[in-house]
Design goal:
mainly alpha, 2 helices
Amino acid sequence: MPPRDQAADNSHAQFMRAVDEELSKFECSEREFRRKDRDERAKRLQMPVEKFDNADLRKIFKS
């Protein structure tokens, strides 16, 4: 592969890694924001915030 094409491939790979890292950071902060927002709304509405796992949800919706 010519050096110019190889440099372009390396540059693209670095760019994609940086994009992936930024997206991961954003998704993490978005999850945290949504969790806090949900907890605040539940507190305002005086509703209990329950923690369910998938097995619990299957039992609830199966009934």
